[in-house]
Amino acid sequence: MHNRDNGNHVIRVASYNIHRCVGLDGRHDPDRVAGVLRELDADLIGLQEVDSRYHVEGGIDQIDYLAQSSGFYPISGPTLIREDASYGNALLTRWPPLTVELLDLSVDGREKRGAIDVAVEVAGIKMRIVVTHFGLGLWERKVQTNVLLKILGDATEPLTVLCGDFNEWVPRWPTVRLLDLRLGRARSAKTFPARWPALGLDRIWVQPNHAVREVRAHNTALARVASDHLPLVASIELP
Q1: Is 220 exposed, middle or buried (0-12, 13-18, 19+ CB in 10 A)?
Q2: Pairing assessment for the beta strands 232-237 and 125-133 based on DSSP bridges
Q3: Beta-bridge partners for 104
Q4: Range with the lowest mean pLDDT among 40-49, 86-95, 109-118, 164-173?
Q5: Contact 53, 78 (CB under 8 A)
Q6: Model-level pTM greater than 0.70?
Q7: 139 CB neighbour count, 10 Å cutoff
Q8: Taking a C-beta distance cutoff of 8 angstroms, is the pair 24, 229 a contact?
Q9: What DSSP element (H or E) covers 39?
Q10: Mode of pairing for the β-strands spanning 9-17 and 44-52
């Protein structure tokens, strides 16, 4: 946890599509992604495209590896599952989870999608964080938005954070507009493609919205090669 000079507690939340730990040079290298996670110095990191031997032959359980490399509690939310492999979302957290729920956001005929809905306690405050990765089709994303809005309900926790890769680059399209209405304006930055970022596919919503102090893309030499996305990082003041 990061403290400001006035004594208020500030946490750092990140969202990072790690692209199966395959970098822009085509090399599978979890150590590079682990290095980026250490650079972030974040408290909660939502991950997308986390692979446990599903696409990468001879691969590793990436969520456990990355958690052990950077000192987090790992929470896995796979959407594609075989007997000996899985692929999907994950959350790395500095605090042990109070509750964990895996949500199904799949749309018939499209790749399976989901979200992780986790509660943690931070400095005596209950916080809810939801990590997701929306689909590629506009209609698919609209359906997923409506399902997620129902799950979020009134978002009555003292602090609610929704983060992920929403595959949405038009700020006023339905995905973003409807979630803005519920959670306040999304924070984003250009994160894709990592080497020459031009699109803000990754977003972080925070309720209450005024708790957000800063949102930025983490653009370092290592991040520009470790994945095809840059991480998105938000500094959030606890209510």
Answers
A1: middle
A2: unpaired
A3: 114
A4: 164-173
A5: no
A6: yes
A7: 11
A8: no
A9: helix 30-40
A10: parallel
Domain extents in the chain: 2-237
Strand duo 85-93 + 99-104: pairing? unpaired
| In CATH, 2-237 is 3.30.420.10 | no
Q: What is the rounded CA–CA span in Å between residue 72 and residue 221?
A: 24
Burial of 117 from C-beta contacts in 10 A (0-12 / 13-18 / 19+): buried
Whole-angstrom distance, CA of residue 144 vs CA of residue 32: 32
The two tokens of residue 152 are 């979020």
What angle separates helix 138-152 from helix 174-183, to the nearest 10 degrees?
Answer: 10
Secondary structure of residue 101 in the 3-state scheme: strand
* Residues sharing a CB contact under 8 Å with residue 23, sequence separation 6 or more, in sequence order: 29, 32, 225, 226, 227
Question: Whole-angstrom Cα distance, residue 94 to residue 113?
Answer: 25
Contact 102, 77 (CB under 8 A): yes
Cross-strand pairs, 51: 87
Q: Is the pLDDT of residue 4 over 70?
A: no
- Report CA 145 to chain centroid distance, whole Å: 16
Cis before 231? omega within 30: no
**Each residue of 59-100: pLDDT tens digit?**
688 999 999 988 899 999 999 888 787 899 999 999 999 999
Q: How far apart are CA 6 and CA 151, in angstroms?
A: 35
Pairing of strands 232-237, 9-17: antiparallel
